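Below is one record:
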Amino acid sequence: MKTTLRREEALAPELAELLLRRAERVREKPVENEDETVLWIAEFRVGEDHYAIPLDVLRAAVPLKMVTSVPLSPPHVVGILRFQGQIVTALSLSSLLGGRGWREDPAVLLVVDVGLGRLVALDCEQIPKPGSVPHALVNEARARTTGPVAEITLAGMRQVNLLDLRRLIEIAALEVRRD
């Protein structure tokens, strides 16, 4: 007698459980107001906190091993790399955010456009996950802050810190000039 295994039985129990949870999430229809516009984001962790950048500024995620260190550079500069024919400065995101620690060693560089066609790379623990945030929440959060980090509270009291990369890098450049 031939027995056939169902897909769930062929997988390790923890993997099968993970896949079932993902399938349930995909089946659920998000509760959204059709008239409400959203900002598409790339979300990632820095230590225990969740951060995000607008998805439209993200150009690529490349391996950290592509970086060449630069002697005597400021502490927030990891090094440089070549990306699509350009020399790009790789920056330590943790250092730019005030020295928050990583949960695991960074393995990825996020190549981003901070404006005016200027590319920089930011170290990151993992490739970010895409998501969206209602523009109304983004505007409220940006109105409450003058700094480079806007704290957005989402459904379920989950907090995401939206980064204004241009401001963050300008602040770091001013601090280097003062030293």
Notes: The chain is about 25% helix and 35% strand. The beta strands are 38-46, 49-54, 58-63, 77-83, 86-91, 108-113, 119-124, 129-134, 149-153, 159-163. Residues 31-178 form a domain with the OB fold (Dihydrolipoamide Acetyltransferase, E2P) fold (CATH 2.40.50.180).
